[in-house]
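quick one: pyridoxal-5'-phosphate bound model?
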Amino acid sequence: MARRPQKLLTPGPTSVPPEVLRALAEPVLHHRSPDFAEVFALAQERLRQVFRTDAEVLVFTSSGTGAFESALVNLLSPGDRVLAVSQGEFGERWQKMATALGCDVVPLTYAWGESPRPDDLRDALTESGAETVFLVHSETSTGVVSELEPLLQVCAEAGALSIVDAVSSLGAVPLDTDAWGADVVVTGSQKALMTPPGLAFAAVSERAWERTGTATLPRFYWDWARQRRVQETGSTPFTPATSLVVALVEALGIVLDGGLETAFARHRALGRACRAGIKAIGLELYSPDDDSAAVLTGALTPDGIDAVELRLALRDRHGITIAGGHGELVPRLFRIGHIGHVSVEDIAEALTAIEEELSAAGADVDLGRAAPAALEAFGTVTTA
Ligand code: PLP
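yep, here:
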């Protein structure tokens, strides 16, 4: 089937560097072999550096949602009270997941686009007596990256175990798993870690390991104790996606060679560039207009212009894939991801295509403004 190659400017999956694609083309490794054990050990070492943890990082063949479910079934028992903080699509997903698994979910729900506040969390913890908290670091449906550290502090003060969704944040924005006291941090391979979809990770603190001893939700594929036992032998209990692990080692090598702080600075600069371009077109931003919005930029189409049509035009006429909105935002919202293997030139190209397509659809936009604005705002990446 002939397919037009697409530049992925979505907040996952993201385009991957050529070195990572080449690693995927290497002969398949057997998962019970010394060759794989060596690669797997390197993957774990690099994962610990990216998570900034000394803890065990569990590696699952699944998407991020699977790793999040693994946290629930290993840490909770039926009827356990869970404070599930939500400020968008993914927070709502975790509320539904815990309800489906028979937990007593106390929602702390914010309007989409808001950021959770430590004082609210403290009050909700006191009121509910919940011993487990779900937090979403980067809410990909809105582009809001929360200030995680103070929220984790509140959890620690209350003695509650924190489970953090870092699916679109890890590797893009600072997240210091150990220093910030996060108990479980979950992410997937397909975003800032610049690897195709198919692997998910959970960093698990000692406190969380202690909880696994009393948690009684049923588990089999997701059983952390067995996972840890077999990981110590250089493999996983069930056949892992060995080629993805090879690719991951390559991708994490690229991230770590450049340095995490440089990666964070680059993501901030890409966000700045994208916002400048969107504003130069005259569009309204949906995601925050500040450096916290380093993962993606959300914007609204002008009145009368359908965001779905815009995305299709970009895909079919320009070979650029961007993301849409969720729920009632579908007709207006589009989201440009700038995580992972994305350059400012990629962003400028997408913004130029957006200008062109908006103009072709009858919007009153001046052509040729977005790319220069983006390139100028990108400036020079410094880690200061
Ligand atoms: N959480 C966040 C913040 C996400 O952005 C995503 C995916 O986009 C998920 C969870 C779900 O991850 P997956 O699709 O890998 O299961």
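Residues 12, 63-65, 90, 136, 138, 140, 165, 167-168, 188 surround pyridoxal-5'-phosphate (CB under 6 Å).
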